[in-house]
Amino acid sequence: MSINIDQALQTFIAEARELLEDMENSLLQLESTPEDAEIIGAIFRAAHTIKGSAGLFGLDQVVGFTHIVENVLDRVRDASIRIEGDLVALLLECRDHMTELVNVIAEQGEQLDEAALGREQFLRKRLQAYQGVQAGHAAVVVEPEIESSGASMEGPDNWHLSLRFDREILKNGMDPISFFRYLGTLGEIISIVTLPDALPPVDEMDAELCYLGFEVNFKSDADKNTIASVFDFVRENSSIRILPPHSKVAEFIDLIRTLPEDEKRLGDILVSIGALTRQELDEGLAAQKNPKADGSTAPLGEILVGQRSVEQEVVQAALEKQSQARESKNKENRYVRVQADKLDELINLVGELVIAGAGANLLAQRSNDSSLQEATSTMSRLVEEIRDGALKLRMVPIGDTFSRFQRVVRDVSKELGKDIDLVISGAETELDKTVVEKIGDPLMHLVRNAMDHGIESAEKRLAAGKPAKGTLKLNAYHDSGSIAIEISDDGGGLNRDRILQKGLERGLVQPNQTLTDQEIYNLIFEAGFSTAEAVTNLSGRGVGMDVVKRNIVALRGTVDLESTAGLGTTIRIRLPLTLAIIDGFLVGVEKSSYVVPLDMVLECVELTESERQGMKERSYLNLRGEVLPLVPLRTHFEIEGSHAKRENVVVVQYAGQKAGLVVDELLGEFQTVIKPLGKLFSNLRGISGSTILGTGEVALILDVPSLVQQAEHAEQS
Amino acid sequence: MPIRAETRNGVCHLAIEGEMTIYAAAELKSELVPHLAEPRIEIDLSGVSEMDSSGLQLLILAKREALQHGRILNLTGHSKAVLDVLDICNMAAYFGDPLIISSHA
Questions:
Q1: Are B88 and A170 in contact (CB < 8 Å)?
Q2: pTM for this one?
């Protein structure tokens, strides 16, 4: 490999990596829908394209290995081997190895290390089991039978046999001619070309060795196994290639390439016996030699598809494919890669702009200058749009994070010997990029935990009357200003008593304490808590859940857990959508201002005099027949001063629970730039941050989740 | 002695008797090769009782040798066994000799 890795090769590497990614996804899909011919086709094409392009660059190691994989995929495609778990696992490993091979190329000149080479040997051996009839005995490679779907890519009507026998065949008492006689009983030999090319000069020729090669055009209704079995007794070292009727031109070209004789001569022979037309041959060979004009390299198969211009259906498909490729390229071009810190800087500036804008707005209102007021209100509208736009830049769908777990679930379930399905929903739900990055690890832990401890072994499941296959669900949705991520399993649920007992042992619960189920379940988030009987490789060491919780709390999120014995467990993580700027609702108590995140505000109600009287005895309100627990901010924050003349209730909702915050004044909507509180205030309950008002005063941002919980608690006790 | 050789009118007449199979191949080759230097060779195959790939291969070798050196090699009197093999392997055209078209059962 040259030191100066050229651009085309880079393109190949990028393309190959993409294809390998697709291949992995398709393989994982295949596990759930093993019969899906489209997916199998996609996997095959990926391997085929990689092999083809690698061939153009002379990357023999890639070609060699991929070729074997492709052969096996070929046999999958024509249904001579069935897709089952082991095969998918093997193919996934092969994919990983191919990735490694590509990486080696990308790193230029690096050689595969010993371990990787060993792995390759092992993989090759395992692939052999799938490779062909009597693999390892006779190298009989049966080419796939292409379902002839209408006009698509039909080759000749007859079988094509390409035979290069073992030199020793005659000495072993077998005569190629006798094979042909036998073949004659299975069908009609349309024509044979005998190739004496390998015959050495007179002096070197050993009359007892067989130097002849044969190309046979054979018409038969027998299936390929029957035909292949004719050559069963030929010892290894023979090269027996059988192309079924209607094989693709590409396969003939492939055949030509792999046979020892000269390409052109073989091509002529294939034409002469009617396997190919002259035009097909010339175009196929020429296209293979000339890379596309734009410098990118097209795999042979695609070129041939593109060139079979007589077949409208195929051309159509090829064009579609091309336009798809173009489209995805355009899509790529529409993205601009921006460094994350530049984006953060922009968001910060927008935050400052919002604060400055609010200040200007306030001054304008005081000035009584209506044209100035108009100008500032236009400006604040624009600032708001800029803010939203800037924040959207950081929003990414959670789907990518979720789909990473497909492979995790697959591998871990294999490791555990359980059969587990991953169901993903809400993948398009968007959330802040920084949140996405930080949620990966906690999610991973929860997923592994659910698989390890949540879902029972197949026997236990069957005994409990559940399907043997466990299901793990990942779900995400937006819910009042936050994103909820659920990890649910249909396993055995949490063992309430065990957790309680363990809690007592660890001194987390006092013996006389009465706890709700919810509180007991939440004990598993305490430090050093593990109920796993066996510490497995995966989880159960008791260092997990508390770390998960800490990570989530650090993101201003919450985590809670629902569990039904025998039916499963759902862990729900709630995270704020963004960490920077929110739409707030400003309220006032005495002289202080507070901000409630607007997404959580349901409505505002004015308290009547009688209700205010009633509040002295009870801390809830009858809101249209519903009990609404109240949190009077005045008492909560111990604000001194006489009660205001009027009081209002801001009804807020979080996680399906409602509460009313009792305030003096409703000051309206306010764009809130969240400024984190210093470490000193980190233990404050009910406050999640601060912001700066237009006047320069500080307003505290209310931590609605904790206030709601508190209200709920007060109501229950 | 499966090959009888005699030269008449500058033509080397060879007659192969018996089977042209793997069992006789080595011997046949050693007997055939010395004659290949002759400018005109005619091989009579009427006495060939059996033929396999090795026999065919020998004939191809002889023919190729002749073609390469601009000599003339003709096969005559093809026996049924020979015709059969030439037919199956589609090699009649290669040798370019007139054949008696068999009914080819």
A1: no
A2: 0.44
